[in-house]
Amino acid sequence: MKNKTIALLTILMLLCVAFTPPAHAEDGYRLWQRYDLVNNSDRLKEYQQSIAEVVIEGNSPTLSVAKNELNMALQGLLGRTIPSSSRQTQSSGALVVGTPASSATVASLKLNNKLKNLGDEGYLIQSATINGKKSTVVAANTDIGALYGTFHFLRLLQTHQSIQNVAITSTPKIKHRVLNHWDNLDRTVERGYSGFSLWDWHKLPDYIDQRYIDYARANASIGINGTVLTNVNANALVLTEEYLIKVKALADAFRPYGLKVYLTARFSSPIEIGELKTADPLDAQVQQWWKDKAAEIYRHIPDFGGFLVKANSEGQPGPQNYGRTHADGANMLADAVAPNGGIVMWRAFVYDDKVPDDRAKQAYTEFKPLDGTFRKNVMVQVKNGAIDFQPREPFHPMFGTMPKTPLMMEFQITQEYLGQGTHLAYLSPLFKEVLESDTYAKGKGSTVAKVIDGTIDNHALTGIAGVSNIGTDRNWTGHQFGQANWYSYGRLAWDHTLGSAEIADEWLKMTFTNNNQFISPVKQMMMGSHEALVNYMTPLGLHHIMGWSHHFGPGPWIKDKQRADWTSVYYHQADENGIGFDRTATGSNAIAQYLPPVQKKFRNVKTCPEKFLLWFHHLPWDYKTESGRELWNELAYRYQSGVDSVRQMQQTWNSMERFVDPERFRHVKTFLSIQEKEAVWWRDACLLYFQTFSKRPLPQGVEKPAHTLEYYMQIDPKFAPGI
Ligand code: BDP
Fold first, then answer.
1. CA angle 142, 144, 147 (to 5 degrees)
2. pLDDT band at residue 353, thresholds of 50, 70 and 90?
3. Is there a domain that residue 650 lies in?
4. Residue 360 sits in the same domain as residue 438
5. What 3-state class would DSSP assign to 578?
6. How many domains does one find in the chain?
7. Ligand 1 atom at minimal distance to the Cα of residue 389
8. Is 388 in the pocket of ligand 1 (CB under 6 A)?
9. Alpha carbon nearest to ligand 1 atom 2, residue
10. Which of the residues 28, 64, 175, 634 has an alpha carbon 20 to 30 A from that of 370?
11. Residue 345 resides in a domain
């Protein structure tokens, strides 16, 4: 009897062990910072031999972060605890991290010649012999530089690269590398598809969620150094004392990671929370109110970054309410933050339905005459294209045509117009396409990247912003592959010369596995994913034909809304004769806003890149495209090929099961099947609709829609997220 009970208990115990879930469900929470044991035995041995101890002298908050990160990461990657000390002690190799100021060891290496070119965020990683022992040094001029170098060093290990003879130097090409959170104070996120806002205002300032720290770690690992906490459609409340105390708590938590906090400033704040009668930027009382407000903010947050402002756009208040210009508004705020070194990021995303001109032209029309009139601490933040974060847009004509004003790039990482939460679209190729576009500002080779990194016009103040895709979902970004967009944005903000494939390679290795049987096909899948999406949504330069207001799903039939430039028919202009927006001289002439060599290229239908064809030209249905197919057939073919590509992506992923943990495998697989379903929806809805104009049959090879156009037109998702 006794034996039987023991046997039973043993079986029960074994069963319990077998069915206990792992301490960490593989939900994606760890992002690219997983730090699992290096499963390449040669490399593991090399690392173990090279890193017998970690030497970090100095104990500033930032160096402590570096120390903790290394402790945790090396424990995981090398499978053993690596002692850390403030002096090199052992006979074998050490990893030495620090600055000449914080570390006598680093100072003794006489690196000053190399360090002097690395600025206050750059770093070097190099093999060195210290006290006769082979070591690796991560050195910088500042603690934050040393932290960035630490993360780079960890990336070498995570991607299984040799650290035997390293000689790396790295400095950011752009100074302000910022995330824009469109987060509201009630924790909803405008255009957010990954849960709610990370900022738990109600529990702040007292409760510092571990997620704030992990968010800052992730950002520091890719060099993001600023975060705008609040929505551009701003709420003045965040500037009240009650909220500033909460903002201070976040700023304090982020500071060791080099992450500065910024806020959006609602232009009418002096009226709403300041009891003034006006917000006129030329009014002395208003100016004083902002100066006092800025001083108050700096009392709480001495390194507050500054303000981001959306004014006189989509109903937001601004200087034009008082007959003043954008420069008047921006300069007033700039004067308020200048004494404390703050900056103003003034958005150029402005358009007005009362202005009877092509929406694509309005930002340039308003801002171009203001070039040279902004204060030194103002950057004008320009979206990558002139309409609005479409799946594909030609670069914004302001890039290259505002030489006296530092322009900041604004990309959208959250996929408002790109399948939102469930579509796999790797956005680095989109970012790169824009960054590498030639503006011809100073002749050939004057790329957008060189405009925003300040080299073309000699600007020292430079910046780049990405509208965040981060929320409370356990995997942070909703889609596991959305993490790659956060990652690649940060990597390109640091160094826009990196290649998309190179970044995908790093991210995949750190996030999934170093196994090339996985990396190679999945990287290929990522690299084609943006083009696939463009094909099944808006091929050949079509744009803004998404569902009304929520922008989810196809809605090319949207018309008769309160403003024409919020309808789809405004953008595609389809009729019996053809399709596309004529932006040449016979149409809106938006092309004239570009510099002459660009104008020339876009103006001529033969030299206009086919990917922008219907962006700039209205063409007949039988227009002969590059493939030799007539426009209607080409359009249909592109829609079909987008769907085919998604099916190919599904096949690729399905064959990867053995390389991925079941949770993440299933997650991605399910989302890909949603993507396939929605790609078909896009294809069928758009082709049936455009067919009412082209009156042509679907060409061979294009699948027949399963439903009628009426069926697609009545689909009206309620409570779509992100509005
Ligand atoms: C559009 C979004 C809207 C934003 C606006 C902006 O639909 O929610 O407020 O851009 O950037 O893309 O201000």
1. 115
2. confident
3. yes
4. yes
5. strand
6. 3
7. 12
8. yes
9. 191
10. 175
11. yes
